[in-house]
Design goal:
The complex is a heterodimer of chains A (about 350) and B (about 400). In chain A, helix 3 packs parallel to helix 4 and helix 8 packs across helix 12. Chain A folds into 2 domains: about 200 residues, Rossmann fold; about 120 residues, 3-Layer(aba) Sandwich (Rossmann fold). The model of chain A has no long low-confidence stretch (mean pLDDT about 100). Chain A has a 7-stranded mixed β-sheet, sandwiched between helices. In chain A, strands 9-11-10-13-14 form a 5-stranded mixed β-sheet, with helices on both faces. In chain A, strands 1-8 form a two-stranded antiparallel ribbon. By secondary structure, chain A is an alpha/beta fold. By secondary structure, chain B is α/β, with parallel strands linked by helices. Chain B folds into 2 domains: about 325 residues, Rossmann fold (3-Layer(aba) Sandwich), CATH 3.40.50.970; about 25 residues, no CATH class. Chain B contains 12 helices and 7 strands. The longest helix of chain B has 26 residues. Chain B starts with about 70 loop residues before the first helix and ends with a helix. The mean pLDDT of chain B is about 95. Classes of the chains: A alpha/beta (about 350), B alpha/beta (about 400). At the A-B interface, helix 3, helix 4 and helix 5 of A face helix 5, helix 6 and helix 12 of B.
């Protein structure tokens, strides 16, 4: 066992898959010679050559559109959009093309492509470098949406995503790139190198898409979280002393409903956390599913803690970010209800 | 300092609308054979003139003249005529079938048959077209069965895409025909990506992108040109300028640019403008661009100047936005009549043989239609199962879709 940062884990997954399969190609803005603005593709161009890992023009539409054509030709493009906030020009290609190609051609043409993008805030990136657009992907049938919270998951899930026969949106919580940020912005973040959750197995293996992970066992309340919010939830449980069961969803679509429902039926209480804005966010779908399937086990109203329904602000970042204090309050209110 | 004058917005309008008399005398049609043919490896900068002219081979007397003539042997020309005639007769039958309520919608090629039919003849097995909805000639010329095409139009049980797509949105990998999208222009950049993949793998296959004059305004067109230019992708970038985007004349998308082909100049691409109603010219230019791509010399932008003689689809009536006489006044004539005249001039064809062939093709098309209708039409007969609606969303059906299929009762 060694420790890796999430950046190194992503790089490692790309390296392993490019080595295994010559049809895996990596491209995006600044990903070639420079190795990506977050360094996730460092060294790949040098190792695999300019035709396997290269820079593109600043055109997210072009990156994804070209990726679809390559995937249709039998390659396995794993493209990078520099920030999730920049994905909108590519949205038509993702929604109308990548997600539908298998269906509309009855399986004749397919799109085994991965679109990686750093997501979430907490880096003073304001509204154009902080968004969490996962619900815009989970609403689109034909896509799979994955979001890891640890280096091991980032590596294993990315390997599985590249192997997947369908398009996968791979969201990388950029605040977790260097360490498990728990929402306490006033404290320095512990590096993954010095954290138990930063450990990765010597033998890299794919982690199946569609499986959640119970990060913390508990009996009083089930917390559904993903990405950065997993670590915020762990901290909130620690700090409140509430016996919370914390589930890292890891894959938002297809969702591991078995793990989710099993836990909520046992605890009878549920808190849903995400950084994205509240209204019509992924939490709304989770709340609907939980009430449909666990209604008679529920002992308290389902609570959602999310980003406020405003654009992601700059100076007010920490009033916007759903940190451990807000999460702790929701846990307490849910446990104490009735 | 102010001039005191007010600004005004320029909104282009076509020169005539219903009730006006169309007059194309200001459209400059160069003499057949008068435009030079550069070597395929000539510097694109040295052939900028070719974006502002019209490459033509067939003259008014039906003779093939000039440096672009002679790209096809006689036998291929006879086949080409047959392809165009087949497409036109097929279209007429399907238009009628739509009017009879056998399907929801149809789009015909009237006047544009030469472009897709001739282009396909320049490709090799394994090359891939990324077509729009008005290039079914690519399939006809590739020998795709008419019955299968009709099954797609009828969305019946024989439809290869299982009733999921609008009529005419065919798909056939085997015939080098990429699944059609209804979101215009999206396929342009995909064709470039496909071509890049071929180059990355050091294969010898090339791609062909297709777009209409109106859709060149989409960002996808720009992205396609940027990527094609940057990576010198082995792709032929086709623009079919049929003058009309539903009711909007080509000037709205073209703006102040001289021609659509000239858009390629900013990207350093060779840009050729060709008479789209001249089967021989279309083939010669396509062959030139395909050879260029195949020799790893990079992409070529080709504008086919043509005229959409029919409506955009079965859902619009062109007489509401353009003079009825405009089609007849169009100076480049009809592609079938022009190739026919050429073959007669060469002594390879006659009026009698033409009439006879028309009857033969009609018989073949009607037989195919009967076969397709024996399976079903949109509202009758054997149609894809509702259960099938849930297939192919993913390679493996995820649990939530399985549950929904169960809930739907299939």
């Amino acid at each position: 066992m060694a420790n890796m940062t999430m950046i190194e884990a992503v790089q490692n997954a790309l390296d392993i898959m490019m080595d295994r399969d010559p049809s895996v190609v990596v491209f995006g803005e600044d990903v070639g010679y420079f190795g990506g603005v977050f360094r996730c593709t460092a060294g790949l161009q040098k190792k695999y050559g300019r035709t396997r890992c290269f820079d593109t023009p600043i055109s997210e539409l072009g990156i994804v559109g070209a990726g679809i054509g390559m995937a249709a030709a039998g390659m396995k493009p794993c493209v990078e959009l520099q920030f999730a906030d920049y994905m909108y020009p590519a949205y038509d290609q993702i929604v109308s093309e990548a997600a539908r190609l298998r269906y509309r051609s009855a399986g004749e043409f397919t799109c085994p492509m991965v679109v990686r993008m750093p997501t979430g805030g907490g880096i003073f990136g304001a509204q154009t470098h902080s968004q969490s657009p996962e619900a815009l992907f989970t609403h689109v049938t034909g896509l799979k949406t994955v979001i890891p919270s640890t280096p091991e998951d980032a590596r294993g899930l990315l390997m599985a995503a590249i192997d997947d026969p369908d398009p996968v949106i791979f969201l990388e919580p950029k605040r977790l790139y260097n360490g498990p940020f728990d929402g306490h912005h006033e404290r320095p973040v512990v590096s993954w190198k010095k954290h138990d959750l930063g450990a990765v197995a010597d033998d890299a293996t794919a982690i199946p898409i569609g499986k959640a992970r119970i990060m913390r066992l508990g009996n009083e309340v089930t917390v559904l979280a993903y990405g950065t919010m997993v670590h915020v939830a762990l901290t909130a449980a620690e700090e409140t002393g509430i016996d919370a069961e914390i589930i890292d969803l890891r894959t938002l679509l297809p969702l591991d409903t078995e793990t989710v429902f099993g836990s909520v039926r046992r605890t009878g209480r549920c808190v849903i956390i995400h950084e994205a804005t509240l209204t019509c966010g992924y939490g709304a779908e989770l709340a609907a599913l939980v009430q449909e399937q666990c209604f008679y086990h529920l002992e308290a109203p389902i609570q959602r803690v999310a980003g406020w329904d405003t654009p992601y602000p700059h100076a007010q970042e920490w009033f916007y970010f759903p940190g451990p204090k807000r999460v702790g309050e929701a846990l307490r209110a849910t446990v104490e209800a009735i | 300092m102010t001039t005191g004058s007010k600004l005004s917005l320029h909104v282009p309008e076509p020169d005539w609308r219903p009730g006006d008399t169309p007059d194309f005398s200001n459209v400059q049609v160069p003499k057949a054979g008068s435009v030079r043919r550069p070597e395929v490896d000539e510097d694109p900068e040295a052939m900028r003139d070719l974006a502002y002219t019209i490459i033509r081979v067939l003259d008014r007397k039906g003779r093939a003249v000039g440096p672009w003539a002679g790209s096809l042997p006689d036998e291929a020309l006879l086949t080409g005529l047959r392809h165009m005639m087949t497409l036109r007769i097929y279209d007429a039958r399907m238009m009628m079938a739509q009017r009879q309520g056998k399907t929801s919608f149809y789009m015909q090629h009237l006047g544009e048959e030469a472009i897709s039919c001739a282009f396909q003849m320049s490709l090799a097995k394994g090359d891939m077209n990324f077509p729009t909805y008005r290039q079914a000639g690519l399939l006809v010329a590739a020998g795709y069965p008419l019955t299968k095409m009709m099954c797609q139009v009828y969305s019946n049980d024989g439809d290869p895409v299982r009733g999921r797509q609008l009529p005419v949105f065919y798909s056939s990998k085997e015939h080098g025909f990429f699944s059609i999208s209804g979101n215009l222009a999206t396929q342009y950049i995909q064709a470039v990506g496909w071509a890049m993949a071929s180059a990355i793998r050091q294969d010898d296959k090339i791609a062909a992108a297709w777009i209409g004059d109106g859709s060149t305004a989409e960002s996808d067109f720009h992205a396609g040109l940027v990527f094609a230019s940057t990576y010198r992708a082995p792709v032929v970038l086709n623009i079919v300028n049929n003058q009309w985007a539903i009711s909007t004349f080509q000037g709205i998308a073209r703006g102040g640019s001289g021609t659509f082909a000239a858009r390629g100049h900013g990207f350093g691409l060779p840009a050729l403008r060709v008479d789209g109603n001249d089967y021989l010219a279309v083939h010669a230019v396509a062959q030139w661009a395909v050879e260029r791509a195949r020799r790893n010399l990079g992409p070529t932008l080709v504008e086919y100047v043509t005229y959409r003689a029919g409506g955009h689809s079965t859902s619009d009536d062109p007489s509401a936005y353009r003079p009825k006489e405009e089609s007849a006044a169009w100076p480049l004539g009809d592609p079938i009549l022009r190739l026919k005249a050429h073959l007669i001039e060469k002594g390879l064809w006659s009026e009698d043989r033409h009439t006879q062939t028309e009857a033969e093709i009609t018989e073949t098309v009607v037989a195919a239609q009967k076969e397709a209708e024996a399976i079903g039409t949109l509202h009758d007969g054997r149609r894809p199962s509702p259960r099938d609606m849930f297939e192919d969303v993913y390679a493996t059906m995820p649990p939530h879709l399985r549950r929904q299929r169960q809930e739907a009762g299939f």
